[in-house]
Amino acid sequence: MSYTVLARKYRSQTFDDVIGQDPINRTLKNAIKTDKAAHAYLFTGTRGVGKTTMARILAKALNCHSFDGPTTEPCCKCDSCVAINIGEDIDVIEIDGASNNGVDEVRRLRENAIYRPARSRFKIYIIDEVHMLSASAFNALLKILEEPPSHVKFIFATTEPNKVIPTVQSRCQRFDFGNISPNLIAGQLKSILKQEKIKYEDDLILPLAKMANGSMRDGLSLLDRLISTGAEPLTVELLEEYLGCPNSEKIYNLISEIGDSDAAGTLQAVEDLINTGLSDVQIVDSLVDCMRDLMVAKSTSAETELLTLTAEQRKRTGELAEKFDVAALVYNITTLEKLRWTIKNSDTPRALLEASLIRFALSEHFLNVDALLSESQTASVKKKRPAARRAELKAPFESIKGVTDEPPSLTELNDIESISSNWPDILKIIIAKLGPGTGGLLSSARPSRFEDGRFTLEFGASAGVSKKMCESNGRKEAIESLLTEHCRKPIKLKLEIASEKEIEPKADSKQTGTSSRRKNEIVNDPVVKTVLMGLGATITGIEELKE
Fold it and tell me: Is 0.85 surpassed by the pTM of this model?
């Protein structure tokens, strides 16, 4: 007797057997119970999630000969149920939409549909991959879908519902089949292995279920491939050797080297993975999956139900998560996703992969601008750095003059002269109250007018971006509130760009030379270097404010 693959041998036979599609099960069963089964259904979803299986079960439920009418529990033993199971029932016609996609085939279907079923209650047409029908074939279906004979039911299945024309979809009841969770797939795989009396390691099941990517049929096909090796018990090593599953320990080792900022160790870990036969794209995919787990563990905990991991994997994930912060993991994941598409079309994929991973290993953790400037004021670096690195940064940060001064208290401000003369002190108050980010944006502005409670600030012609940022995210309102507090009267803030006539003429050649030297001093300043390094930024322009 020929071997029957697991996907066919253990195909679901009743509604209750279908795994991972409970809402659809309940809806169809209730429709049958209340005699409200529709004349046309559209089942959509990725491959292997149960669309065609559900269509056959629905056909058996409508036509089972063991009952006087449609039932939610077909017997699976009568002539009709047995014939439907093997696809040979004369009243349940299964059509492949890919090979019968022309208008002539649909016309023949319409001509045959008017005749009553030979022995069952309904004549049922199951069209798989219905999106492959041509436009003319779809149009030929419309009339019979809208007003079908009472004895005809249509069940369409497709993996690409967007290719089914809207006029056809509007005449069907649509059900979207979701991906099956790895835990449900793992439970089914364990059940099948027990029925087949095949020994296996517990740590094998969950990685195998995750490789199925939400498809029960794919999971059973992968299990078939393992069984065909003839090895017993089935082990994780077989999964790595025959199915190309990455060695989880080697992936964890690579991420550990990145977290330890060890460039040499990172390159060696990549070499170890490539020697196992993994491609560069497979390594990237594995890193994305693992770093996603680290991100979830760091945001919640390693014990969260959001992670589908074995006990040992949860332990390792919790340990590795301590070496990263969430911002760095988010950056790594998005960068790897972009890298994935790049290396597919590159002649030097390994070099690109190694360069990106070295960048991860040698980069600092990522902070926003306000956090970085706050650290520069307090001379305390919150990110984890080696002691030598902290010593190098301490001196430059402490050399920022006046950043530790207490913000001054101002007397009542009534006119533009008093505001202008006290503007440096006002900026210090803004930095203390609203943060260095807002203070930095206002450093490129100067007081211009103060009339009837309306205070005008002018930005330089090249500071348009700073003006827009001051007007966004509630910064303008916060500044108004702070000025109102210190001026003891309501203040409305107006932001303007300086007119062109106020722009100073270009400096002569002598001044240009002096300016160049000044720019070099600024660029080479230790504080500037520290900020640029922390932000991963480059200088696009320098504007020096005059007293």
Answer: no
Residue 395's pLDDT is what? 38
Residue 536 lies in a domain: no
Please check whether residues 307 and 392 belong to one and the same domain.
no
- 408 pLDDT more than 70: no
| 135 & 261 share domain | no
At residue 538, the pLDDT reads: 60
Q: Are 134 and 20 in contact (CB under 8 A)?
A: no
CATH assignment at residue 118: 3.40.50.300
- Burial class from Cβ neighbours inside 10 Å (0-12, 13-18, 19+) for residue 130 reads buried
Is residue 389 scored above 90 in pLDDT?
no
Residues 6+ apart with CB under 8 A from 315: 302
- 168-199 pLDDT, tens digit each: 999 999 999 999 999 999 999 999 999 999 99
Question: Which domain, by its residues, includes 256?
Answer: 248-362
SS3 123: strand
43 within a domain of the structure (yes/no): yes
- What is the per-residue pLDDT across 442-460, written as a single tens digit (0 to 9) for each? 877 888 888 877 888 888 7
**Residue 331 token pair:** 């950056």
Q: What are phi and psi of 125, to 5 degrees?
A: -110, 120
Strands 152-158 and 92-96: unpaired
Residues 166 and 45 placed together within one structural domain of the fold: yes
- Dig out the tokens for 441 from the structure: 């944006």
Cβ atoms 75, 242 nearer than 8 A: no
First to last CA, the chain: 96
Residue type, position 371, single letter:
A
Q: Please, are residues 43 and 177 in contact by the beta-carbon 8 Å criterion?
A: yes
Residue 286 near residue 254, CB atoms below 8 Å: no
- Report the alpha-carbon distance of residue 84 to residue 80 in Å, rounded: 6
- The verdict on 357 and 469 lying in the same domain is no
Last residue of a domain, one of 242, 276, 294: 242
3-state secondary structure string across 250-313: HHHHHHHHHHCCCHHHHHHHHHHHHHCCCCHHHHHHHHHHHHHHHHHHHHCCCCCCCCCCCHHH
Six-digit token string for 456: 């005008």
* Residue 226 and residue 239 in contact, taking contact as beta carbons nearer than 8 Å: yes
Q: In CATH, what number is assigned to the domain containing residue 423?
A: 3.30.300.180
Q: Are 159 and 189 in contact (CB under 8 A)?
A: no
